[in-house]
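Aim 2 progress update. The chain analyzed this quarter is reproduced below.
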Amino acid sequence: MKTMRHAMILQLIDSMEIDTQEALAEQLMRKGVRVTQATISRDIKELRLIKVLSEHGTYKYASADRAEKTVSDRMMRLFSESVVSMTEAENLIVIKTLVASAQVAAEAIDNMNWTEIAGTLAGENTIFVAVRSKDLVPTVMNRFRAMMK
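Predicted structure tokens:
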């Protein structure tokens, strides 16, 4: 019963904007599943549900995995929209961004966890990307270009 309820909860939060435990309990009741507030609370904890900002500017429940993907997608979009130019220098890639965008773009790069990248350093509108070896720079540059399309 619990496994079925958990699957139902995940399906509900993926298909609807559910923002409270009460709303979740109500939707489960509509599907014929009677639950208490304590059960809903336990289920939320066990499923590692968190509240995330929806497309409509309100908060809703989402699985941690789904929320991470949403953040990742947003970071990728911010990266692609803020980069003005890229150039290489030995094992460094120098990325120019719109003013005040370098920190966000560098955070996006860091969150990608690419093994070729040793780290980033961001200023106001410039990011230095340290690539582990000079030979990997063209690969990383191509991946960055692909992100910007």
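Strands lie at 49-53, 59-63, 83-89, 92-97, 117-122, 126-131. The radius of gyration is 21 Å. These observations will guide the mutagenesis experiments scheduled for the next reporting period.
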